[in-house]
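Hi R.,

Here's the input for the zinc ion complex you asked about:
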Amino acid sequence: MTIGRNEACPCGSGLKYKKCCLGKNATRSVLHTLLLAFGGVILLVCIVLVIKSIRDYEPSSGSKRIWSEEHQHWHQAQ
Ligand SMILES: [Zn+2]
Ligand SMILES: [Zn+2]
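And here is the predicted structure with zinc ion in place:
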């Protein structure tokens, strides 16, 4: 069931729905959606950055290390 914009607001304020809770609900839901989307994007970026930093991680040169596929970590070269 949908409420017409010019009907009395169901909250009982006596105002028309468009002048009362329609705007409130819309604003709240838009903010909520934006916040959720923003949070999701931030989380995604963080995860991608962490994965990227792990994958790109190479020990600084100075001591030679060899990547071990078997152990999935770096071995110190003798
Ligand atoms: Zn209302
Ligand atoms: Zn190892």
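One thing worth noting: The chain has one domain: 17-76.

Cheers,
M.
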